[in-house]
Design goal:
By secondary structure, the chain is α/β, with parallel strands linked by helices. The chain has 2 domains: 140 residues, 3-Layer(aba) Sandwich (Rossmann fold), CATH 3.40.50; 61 residues, Arc Repressor Mutant, subunit A (Orthogonal Bundle), CATH 1.10.10.10. It has 10 helices and 6 strands; from the N terminus they run βαβαβαβαβαβααααα. It has a 6-stranded parallel β-sheet, with helices on both faces. The N and C termini lie far apart (38 Å).
Length: 217
């Protein structure tokens, strides 16, 4: 039996995925998560065989969830289900540890095939994404400078995500169970590292990375 955790901030999407995957006799949906931090908590609690996760989620984006889950739980495979079809988004997901990438417009068969493939230790990219294009993108970007965002700590990324979603320092502190002063420190560090001069610049940066969902706080 393949245990699966579903993580997407849209209830209808999660319900659709649950119905779709429940048709497979060897699949078991162990739980659902509506944001990134909940996905991390439930992944640690259930230790699923597969995490099916969206890229754009509140609390913590899907890339960071993927990185932390694969780092902390090597036996949990990650399949990204996203609306983003660009080679850049796919490559970032793979570099963060995802073993599979399926577009939301793909067929149900492709998602089930992706889950089975990653369980067998193989990478799976849906048919709409060209393997050759991915290889070309990898070769092209390998010589590029380090992405500065990758230098942020996990806590800085959590603060960055919440601030980009419109949470105040006090609200972010409450959600992360840290002091307002600590949030302010991390926020200032993020702004300095990413060379961002205002809240508007921070939000724009998050949107360019596909981190901020259409509906924010």
């Amino acid at each position: 039996m393949i245990s699966i955790l579903l993580a997407d901030d849209h209830l209808l999407v999660r319900q659709g995925l649950r119905v779709l995957l429940s048709t497979q006799s060897d699949f078991k949906i162990v739980d659902e998560a509506a944001d990134g931090r909940e996905a991390l908590e439930k992944a640690e609690r259930h230790r699923p065989n597969v995490l099916v996760v969206d890229l754009a989620m509140p609390g913590l984006d899907g890339l960071e969830v993927t990185r932390l889950v694969t780092q902390r739980q090597p036996d949990t495979r990650v399949v990204v289900v996203s609306m983003h079809a660009s080679e850049e988004h796919v490559l970032k997901a793979l570099r963060h540890g995802a073993q599979g990438y399926v577009l939301k417009e793909a067929s149900a068969d492709e998602l089930t095939q992706a889950i089975r493939s990653v369980m067998e230790g193989r990478r799976y990219l849906c048919s709409a994404i060209s393997e050759r294009a991915i290889d070309a993108y990898v070769n092209r970007t390998d010589v590029q400078p380090l992405d500065i965002y990758e230098t942020l700590t996990t806590r800085e990324r959590e603060v960055f995500q919440l601030v980009a979603e419109g949470y105040t320092n006090a609200e972010a502190a409450e959600r992360l169970f840290i002091s307002i002063r600590t949030v302010e420190t991390h926020r200032a560090s993020v702004m300095r590292k990413l060379n961002l001069r205002s809240q508007a610049h921070l939000v724009a940066y998050a949107m360019r990375r596909g981190m901020v969902p259409e509906m924010t706080h």
